[in-house]
Task: inverse folding
């Protein structure tokens, strides 16, 4: 494709994206001349970790409980997803703290698993 073709395509894409935006978002990106510039502006607006987002993720972490008879793999996957989201907003836990949080919400019926893991983490 020629450079002129790319510029035309970019303007068309920019127009289509603008049509899908709410008024308050469209207002913030009205000055954008390219799709890349628009995406950069929107990224800056929405990717900054807000206090409410951090609180929401922390609540998700501390309310995550492994139900009786629930899959350990599913529980660990959900836990790791939340930990990754927290890391992306610059909240980090060292390995020992992660293990302790993970074990704190394992049901009592899995006490033997908790004991085995607790003993190996404490060393």
Result:
């Amino acid at each position: 494709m020629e450079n002129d073709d790319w510029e035309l395509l970019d303007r068309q894409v920019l127009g289509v994206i603008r049509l899908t935006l709410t008024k308050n978002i469209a207002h913030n990106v009205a000055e954008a001349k390219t799709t890349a510039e628009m995406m950069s502006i929107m990224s800056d607006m929405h990717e900054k970790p807000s206090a409410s987002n951090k609180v929401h993720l922390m609540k998700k972490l501390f309310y995550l409980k492994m139900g009786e008879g629930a899959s350990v793999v599913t529980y660990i996957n959900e836990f790791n997803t939340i930990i990754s989201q927290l890391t992306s907003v610059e909240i980090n836990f060292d390995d020992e703290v992660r293990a302790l949080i993970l074990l704190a919400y394992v049901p009592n019926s899995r006490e033997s698993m908790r004991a085995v893991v607790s003993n190996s983490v404490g060393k």
About this structure: The first helix runs from residue 3 to 20. The chain has a mean pLDDT of 86. The chain has seven helices and no strands. The radius of gyration is 22 Å.
